Amino acid sequence: MDRSTHGESVSAALKQLQLPFDVAPAPTRAGRLRHVQLAGGILGYRLVRASRRGIALFVGADGVEARAPHRAAIADVEDFLRKKERWIRRLLAEPRRPPFVWEAGASLPWLGGALTLTLQRGHSEVRMSEGRLEFGIDDGASLRERALEWMCGRALAFFRERTAALSPRLGLDASSVALSNAKTRWGSCGPDGRVLLNWRLMLFPPRLIDYVVVHELAHRLEFNHSARFWEIVARVCPGHLSTRRELNALARNLPEL
Length: 257
Known about the structure:
- The protein is α+β, with helices and mostly antiparallel strands.
- Among the domains are: 24-93, no CATH class; 145-252, Zincin-like, CATH 3.30.2010.
- It has helices at 74-83, 85-93, 143-166, 206-218, 227-236, 240-252, and strands at residues 3-4, 15-18, 32-38, 41-50, 56-60, 63-69, 107-110, 113-120, 126-129, 132-136, 177-180, 185-189, 195-198.
- Strands 1-5-6-4-3 form a five-stranded mixed β-sheet. A four-stranded mixed β-sheet has the order 2-12-13-11, with helices on one face. Strands 7-8-10-9 form a four-stranded mixed β-sheet, with helices on one face.
């Protein structure tokens, strides 16, 4: 699993709920390879300059990448790496998530349960029925391609429904909702109130999805993570701290789709 740090990478123009233990984008090949002396030894990392406000770290199978503002001093970047050394080494030591095998009989996580993939001749549709996700095999498209298309269609409808249901509980009109394919966050809310939600949330139980929806909607009232923001979240999700921990724990075990 590739991961990114929290907090320091939040943009002023967009509030994001990050995936604390999920797949981050593979480190880019741009940037400069550098080395820094840490307490546990020398760490190689790739430094990428970007138009951003803070420093962010990405740890993955390809190593460590630091993304920093154009004007950030190297000393500040490497001080940040030293502060995050334990976090970095823990992630580097963890096993990678296994890829999902797209084949008949595979069990696909779905809304807290699972769907068994099955193949049916005679049609080209994707159908969900009694714990199965049935695929016609007449059109020659890949199983993965068709499954993800189906999942995204279901995700958008589900997210719009939950956003419409939860917005009034925060005193809000329903937000515009779109899908996100981000690798480092579950959702985001822009200054215009538009909410993006990661289609991978459909792998979790609905109550965890509701927490992410509420988190993003709360940013329409408080565009920060202040005490006031968390008070707003708690009004709708009183157990949001344990919910967040459960979300993080389940994310560690998701297959790579």
